[in-house]
Structure formats: structure tokens, C-alpha cells
Amino acid sequence: MASSKTPLYVRLPHSEAAKLDRAAFALAASKQTLVAGLVARYVDPSSASGLEALRELTGDAGSRRVTVETADDSIAVGRPSFLPAGTAEVLNVDELAALLKVEPAEVEALAEDDGCPAGGSETNGASRARAALEWLAEGDVTSRLAARRAGRSNSVMS
Fold first, then answer.
1. Which residue from 111, 104, 140, 109 is spatially nearest to 128, judged by alpha carbons?
2. How many CB atoms within 10 Å of residue 6?
3. What gap in Å lies between CA 30 and CA 36, rounded to an integer?
4. Is-contact 24 31, C-beta < 8 A?
5. What residues contact residue 146 under an 8 Å CB cut-off, 6+ apart?
6. What is the per-residue pLDDT across 109-139, written as a single tens digit (0 to 9) for each?
7. How far apart are CA 109 and CA 116, in angstroms?
């Protein structure tokens, strides 16, 4: 004889699970009976007002659920989420040189001459990135490169 029941597996917040435990104990009833009664009384997906009442309960959790089939034939169920990688906060020497259309050695020399704060390990990566961006924003990097080149050519002529 086929069962008229469907298994239901849920994860509840601890406080709600404790309430369900206390209610089942106090009423000498099974959790299955309590949950079935609550669903019968309060869940009405056949009407617009019933769905709206359920939407109020779900908040952001009302997004669509996704089922993923994996290579080992198991099934993973969850909600999709995507966080774009974004762009790097700072460029490496080669990327900055390409952006400025100069040789990487010139960028390195400028950083050494001007004391670029991006190096070192005394601060965390975010602080170094912020400091490097501020250093680049202090003035026109191309004019600093030109001044460095002019200084280098003057010292060669001397």
C-alpha cells in the first residue's frame, strides 16, 4: 500500500526548532503532525492573498531555487549567487608601463625616485593599494616621467 505522505527535510533556525520541540513535547504530538497542521491552516498558494502572505514571510529568500546535477549523479539544491570579480585596485609595473606607454624600468625607477608607497609588507594590501592610487593622483605621472628623462639626459651630457 502506497503512503500518502511525502518526506520533508528542512533546516530551521535554532530558536524556531526549539519552539517546535517544546510544542511537540507539551502537546504530546509529533512534529510531523504540528507542521502538517500549520501548513494546512496557514499556507494557501491557490490565492493571490495567500501567496502575498507567504511572500511577506520569505523576504529576500523568495528567489528561485536551482537544482544542479553533478558528475557523480548526486544532486545539489540551492539558490544561485554571483559576485563579479571586479577590477584590480592597482596595476602591476608592466600594466602601468603599458598604460603610460613607457618601459617597465622607467616605472620602477620613478617609483623608487618618488618613493611609491605601494611596496613593502608593513601594511595590508588594501592600504598599499589606496596609498599607490593616492601617489599616482598627486600629480601628472607622464610629466614626472618626462622630468626624470630630462634629468637623465642632462646628467648624460655633463
1. 111
2. 5
3. 10
4. yes
5. none
6. 777 776 665 555 445 556 666 666 676 677 6
7. 10
pLDDT tens digits for 42-52? 888 898 888 88
Rounded to two decimals, the pTM is: 0.38
Which residue reads 549567487 in cell numbers?
81
| Cell 544542479 sits on residue | 68
Sorted by sequence, the CB contacts under 8 Å of residue 78 that are 6+ apart come out as 65, 66, 68
- Whether the CB-CB separation of 115 and 109 falls below 8 Å is answered with no
DSSP symbols for 56-125: HHHGGGGSPPEEEE-TTS-EEEE----------SS--HHHHHHHHTS-HHHHHHHHHHHT-TT-SSSS-H
- Residues facing 66 on adjacent strands: 78
Q: Give CA separation, 109 vs 94, 126, 148, 149, 152, in Å.
A: 13, 23, 9, 11, 11
